[in-house]
Amino acid sequence: MSGQFEATVEVDRSIERVFAYLADGRNDPQFSPRVLKIERFPDTLTAEGTMFRSTVKDAGMKTAREFRITALEAPVKIRWAEVSKNNVTAREGGYDLEPLPGGRTRVRIFNVLEGHGVGKLLVGLALAAARKDADKYGSRIKAAAEAAIDPR
Q1: pTM
Q2: How far apart are CA 98 and CA 148, in angstroms?
Q3: What is the pLDDT of residues 127-143, one digit of tens each?
């Protein structure tokens, strides 16, 4: 079983700057409290093929996660796929960005969650929790991006 959750938010910063902020996955802990640690490999600007390795805490358990950037089209599209082997993984995820009047940016985030092994029994619970938190997650992205990016 698999399923998707998504959220859309409007950020009061330019699309180019929001794209740069989100493309650097090392910023994820600023808006995702489940991400305890994250590193980028290679440690250069994010590009297609860049890997992010993280330690996350879900349901009280720490797990290692690895994601590969599968598409990067500045400043409108970022896609990733989880390559780690966990019970529940993000088969595909991404950001779609759209410029808005006044130098603002609409950001849509989504993840397609998939269960493996015992995770096939857990993915429904993970999806329910992610969908319940989706709007708050979007709000955390907005707040973190606006705090981190100078409004100039």
Answers
A1: 0.95
A2: 19
A3: 999 999 999 999 999 99
pLDDT tens-digit series, residues 97-111: 999 999 999 999 999
CB burial class (10 A; 0-12, 13-18, 19+) of residue 107?
Answer: buried
**Exposed, middle or buried: residue 78 (CB in 10 Å: 0-12, 13-18, 19+)?**
buried
Hunting for tokens 């709007």 — which residue is that? 135
Residue with token string 């994820």 = 28
CB atoms within 10 A of CB 72: 19
Nearest to 95, CA basis, from 18, 17, 13, 3: 18
